[in-house]
Amino acid sequence: MTIKKYNNVAPIRDNRLDAIITFGGNASELVDLSSKKCLKAKDRAFSQTTFCQEWLAMLTLASIKDTVAIVHAPVGCSSSLTCINIFNRFGQILRGDEPLTGKWISTNLKDSDAIHGGAENLKEAIFAAENRYKPKAIFIFSSCVSGIIGEDIDAVIGQTQDEISATIIPVYCDGFKSKVWASGYDGSFQGALNYLIKEPNEKRENLVNIINPITFGRVDEIEVERLLKQLGLEANFIPNFSTTEDIGRASEAALTASLCTTFSEYFAKTLNERYQVPYTEKLMPVGLDNTDEWIREIGSFFGKEEVESIIKSERERIQPKVDEIKEKLGGKKAFVSAGQSRAIGIPNLLADLGIDIVGITAYHYDEVISDSFAQLEQRCGNFCTNVANVQPFEQTNILNREKPDLYFGHMGESVWAAKEGIPTGMVFNLSHLFVGYNGVVAFGNRILNLVNNSSFSQKISQHAKPIYHENWLNEDPFKYHNGGELK
Amino acid sequence: MSGIIEKPRFTCALGGALSTIIAINNHVPIIHAGPGCGVQLFYGQTFTSGFRGSGWIGGVAVPSTNTYEKEVVFGGESRLKEQIENTIELINGDRYVVLTGCTSELIGDDIKGILNEFQNEVSIIFAETAGFRGSSYEGYEILLDAFIDQVVKKKPRQTNLVNIIGIVPSQDVFWEGNLAEIERILNEIGLEVNTLFNGQEIEDLSAASLNIVLSPWVGVKSAQKLEEKYGTPYIVNPIPIGVDQTNAFLEKVGKILEVDVSEVTAREEAKTYKSIDKVADFIIDFDVQLKFATITDSNYAIAINKFFVNEFGWIPSLAVISDEIPDEYKELIRNELRFENALSPDILFESDSFKIYENIEKDTPEFLFGSSLDKDFAGTIGATKLSIAFPITDRVIIDRGYAGYKGVINLLEDALSEVVTPF
């Protein structure tokens, strides 16, 4: 049995990183306020639905092979796992595996449980997970209901762990507890850190943990492997599509790097605190400069002087192809909406292709990206900047002002740009490369398709019924931001 | 204590109510709940019903109070009030519907009091749809109840108008195609139809001459309530698929409303069998007489088993009924699935996927009507599978329906295409 040494509840990013979800203005204002520590945590007097941290916590751990997820909640709180399962299956196919549907159990809390507590359901679910699948680990995701009724999940685990061979891991991610859904990553990683990471048997000098969000495809990992191999390094991709054993040996790695620092920063920091595995801080290897910096940081950590010549030869190899695309895309105007790290990475990639950035939405903003954001502002100018946990009503207003030629965003929000008639590309697509040097060209080629044929967004927009009153488009897009204490 | 569910085949009350509201013309949902409910249920209910999208105001566009720690501690009433004011200011809807979720109901916000302030300005109602109140089906019923209590007004009876209730959008993945076919055939016999989703007014639910509950149980209580309040008779008729069931359905409706349906049923029957005849050679030449099982809700269990046993000659094995059904309706469902000549399927009321598989395994069906969750399982028992039940992520559904005369041709094309896929 695991002896608990650490708190199972990770601190939320609202407090730990002074993260905000509401800002409207231009890039230089955000840089200025952020550098002076004068950002305010504003709210919205009108808001649209968004993700909660439980959703992202489930997403973080859903594809780990030898585990079962228990969602301690009413039946609706596990429903998106059917959608996440699409990415899980697709990811397995892309890795050459036979695709298997994940395993999850809802404790199906009803009104009587909301009054009397759901401990019995939780115990039943734990035994079911164990007996049905003999997994290595069982994750228990908390919820708004389990949080509000004060369910003691740790206590239930204490009562059952002796009879269960799987390691039972609590993931505290009550939806209402953090305004920043990225806190859900930390809740998940806290569980992994407390229960799965083993004391290192050996230190493996060439092993680099690469933290891989599920939204990066196998093609992206292959590009990373290609670059690391030139430095004589090996990647341990965790947590997605890995096993509890792969995660457990993270303590043996020489270094932790990440495909998305916003996703990994709490894990990387904490792993270093506990097991002395240093970590890199560069955001993501997306765009030429970012890729340079990303691989350079790893190379210099290992004292590999050849990293500069690798960068040079990669640049020389790729530049003619980039120039070719630049010729066709140069001067186009783009708007990007994404999680904060990708909201830096993708604009940099677009700038490599000569595309002007007219606006960015980042789902939240915190100190993890403050330096990189300032660099982007230096590079791309004083573009419109929105910090919003999706909020398509603000986006529609901004797009009507900025009139970009192209839009790049995530699932859910991008369709609203298409309905404004803007050719729309996804910032994540598991079957298409966007990481590294080759990623710039691959992404560029997709943009060419978008530019060459935008008939879908044109047609859709001609027939879409507007949601908002017409005068909303003349109002200040940030009209509904209010209040706010100084961060 | 309610039972745990491995890989549930429905979402919560809020999920059913939300997917219903966004399916009704110009109705604006306002979720009063934690931040994630709307997105969770978009990706967990709407999108996973054959990749249906946001439409006019679904997906991430749904207004929501996104209540956080502050509201949980101090109450969410002022936040809701502000959200309603601004939703009205931003979005022009015919009606605004506040749907409460778990957090707001646990903290006990007074929704009714807040809504009173807006009643003179706009049409605004609320439904208590906390996830812990039940499944998507029950969420639909709660919403329908809210409509009856807060919207429906007494209207003069319209002799040729009927209401169709009991079909939960997205929970029935084929809801739109199904309702279109039901509306078509009722139009054929001279009736007008209010399905809630076809542009008819909710207010006018009282004007119908007959309420048709197109499910063995979902909406029955609402039909009873409409009978008590407005004296409207109702029938409970699970969704009809194929000629026998659809003929019987029209005859039942015709009898109550004194409409002669014989010409329509004869014509539709001839047309449908002219189509089915086209696959007769294939069915006979390839011996396509399969032993099949169903993992669906009660509505589809009845219709699929009836059609494939009584009209298509297939051999039933197990009918798994995955909606959590109130006990009082189970007998009706058992009766519906009692066929002649020892051809009744075994029946299992079960929502937990693991227990479902344990039971089907023993029966080794050759064909499985289920959901996309059952892909791996169908593979392990070597069964051919068609996804017809929620959730569906291995098919794209736009306007397709399985109900009625036209629907059964779609159903046969889809099921038999799965059989020939290896070739």
Write up what this structure looks like:
The complex is a heterodimer of chains A (about 475) and B (about 425). Chain A is α/β, with parallel strands linked by helices and about 475 residues long. Chain A folds into 3 domains: about 50-180, Rossmann fold; about 205-310, Rossmann fold; about 320-485, 3-Layer(aba) Sandwich (Rossmann fold). Chain A has helices at about 15, 25-35, 55-60, 80-95, 110-115, 120-135, 145-150, 155-160, 185-195, 220-230, 245-250, 260-275, 290-300, 305-330, 340-350, 370-380, 390-400, 415-420, 435-450, 455-465; strands at about 20-25, 40-45, 65-70, 105, 135-140, 165-170, 205-210, 235-240, 255-260, 335-340, 355-360, 385-390, 405-410, 425, 480-485. Chain B has 17 helices and 13 strands. Chain B has helices spanning about 15-20, 35-45, 70-75, 75-90, 100-105, 110-115, 135-150, 175-190, 220-230, 245-255, 260-275, 280-285, 300-310, 330-335, 355-360, 375-380, 405-420; strands at about 5, 25-30, 95-100, 125-130, 160-165, 190-195, 210-215, 235, 290-295, 315-320, 345-350, 365-370, 385. Chains A and B meet through helix 3, helix 4, strand 4, helix 5 and helix 6 of A and strand 1, helix 1, helix 2, helix 3 and helix 4 of B.
